[in-house]
């Protein structure tokens, strides 16, 4: 073919497309599925065949096909000049009295899940078909209250159950940390029980699964349950999620205090958390046996500020190792040593600091 022939072929296609343009099939409010719990209504169970006419043309027929797993399960034909016809799975569930070619279900059941395509025929005889579109029929209500959990001995133990759902859900539950990029420890696939009901709906549950909280547990850890439905095209539809937030936030404390080798720490009050941190703590730092205070201060009191998670002195200042200087017993006190010795002692002390 010569170039001008290609051009003409292209123009012919454009001309044909402009008489009737088809959009994809759509549900009301940009919904991605039909919610069976809401019941049939034009706000929930109405499939629209989107098309746009040019000029004088009118649509004389709109035909719907329902597919499931590559097989046609039902059909609905709307005619501008009535009567309309429905067959297969669409018989007796479709509103036959609509004046447009939309497919409205008056009765919902699981078998209506699947793919739908529509085609429009014009008075000129021209016909266009919209691509098939998947319409899941989902039976599930939010079940936020079905997570039961307890935290004791640094074990987070929980039970969870979905309600009866259709189609089979995709479920995930476990310790979750945004900092760590998602699920940190998870309920295994084999730990979920699957109960299939006679009408085809299923219940997913687990009980008594424990996770240990320890020094490696991220600070932002939560327990997260995600329930959704996967469309055949791989798109995930979230249905319910439950987040037990920051389960060890009330348990955070200060890390092990870093005392110098010549210092000794005595705890008067102390609680060690699951992450091995100190809270509700009060302690005294003194010079270790064989050392004595290098100055007037013989001991410093420190406590953990649980908001900033840092060690503080009694006066509210941050505690540092050099707040208490100690020297070896028997060594001359710094007041009497020569300048050279004092410099050496300072160097030694700096050596021991962080
Ligand atoms: C369906 O609608 C019910 C009632 O409004 C609602 O509780 C439920 O979460 C909805 N389910 C889905 C899957 O959207
Ligand atoms: C989980 O369920 C078991 C029995 O099924 C019950 O004994 C236990 O107390 C439940 N645990 C929680 C945290 O609710
Ligand atoms: C299917 O069975 C379950 C469990 O018996 C029930 O809760 C659900 O409502 C049923 N769904 C339909 C659409 O009949």
UniProtKB/TrEMBL annotation:
According to the record, the signal peptide region is 1-19
Keyword Signal included in the entry's annotation: yes
Keywords of this protein's UniProt record, alphabetized? Answer: Signal
> What InterPro entries is this protein classified in?
Ig-like_dom_sf, Ig-like_fold
The upper taxonomy is: Eukaryota, Metazoa, Ecdysozoa, Arthropoda, Crustacea
Asked if Nuclease is a keyword of the record, the answer is no
Top-rank taxon of the source lineage equals Eukaryota
* Organism field: Chionoecetes opilio (Atlantic snow crab)
Specify the protein name.
Ig-like domain-containing protein
């Amino acid at each position: 073919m010569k170039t001008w022939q290609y051009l003409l072929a292209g123009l012919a296609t454009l001309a044909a497309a402009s008489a009737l343009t088809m959009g994809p099939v759509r549900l009301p409010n940009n919904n991605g599925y039909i919610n069976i719990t809401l019941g049939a209504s034009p706000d929930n169970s109405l499939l629209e065949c989107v098309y746009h006419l040019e000029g004088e043309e009118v649509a004389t027929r709109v035909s719907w096909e329902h597919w499931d797993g590559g097989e046609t399960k039902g059909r609905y034909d709307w005619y501008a000049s009535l009567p309309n016809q429905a067959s297969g799975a669409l018989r007796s569930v479709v509103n036959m009295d609509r004046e447009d070619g939309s497919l409205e279900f008056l009765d919902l059941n699981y078998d209506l899940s699947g793919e739908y395509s529509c085609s429009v025929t014009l008075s000129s005889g021209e016909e266009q078909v919209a691509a098939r579109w998947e319409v899941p029929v989902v039976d599930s209500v939010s079940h936020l209250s079905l997570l039961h959990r307890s935290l004791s001995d640094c074990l987070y133990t929980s039970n969870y159950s979905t309600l009866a759902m259709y189609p089979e859900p995709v479920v995930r539950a476990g310790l979750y940390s945004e900092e760590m990029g998602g699920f940190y420890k998870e309920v295994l696939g084999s730990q979920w029980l699957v109960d299939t009901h006679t009408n085809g709906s299923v219940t997913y549950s687990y009980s008594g699964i424990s996770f240990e909280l320890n020094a490696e547990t991220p600070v932002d850890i939560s327990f997260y349950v995600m329930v959704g439905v996967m469309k055949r095209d791989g798109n995930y539809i979230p249905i319910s999620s439950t987040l037990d937030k920051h389960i060890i936030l009330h348990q955070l404390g200060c890390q092990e205090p870093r005392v110098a080798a010549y210092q000794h720490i005595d705890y008067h009050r102390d609680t060690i958390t699951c992450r091995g941190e100190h809270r509700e703590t009060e302690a005294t730092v003194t010079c270790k046996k064989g050392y004595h205070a290098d100055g007037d201060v013989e001991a410093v009191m420190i406590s953990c500020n649980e908001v900033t998670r840092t060690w503080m002195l009694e006066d509210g200042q941050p505690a540092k190792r050099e707040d208490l200087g100690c020297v070896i017993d028997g060594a001359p006190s710094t007041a009497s040593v020569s300048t050279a010795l004092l410099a050496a002692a300072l160097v030694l002390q700096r050596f021991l600091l962080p």
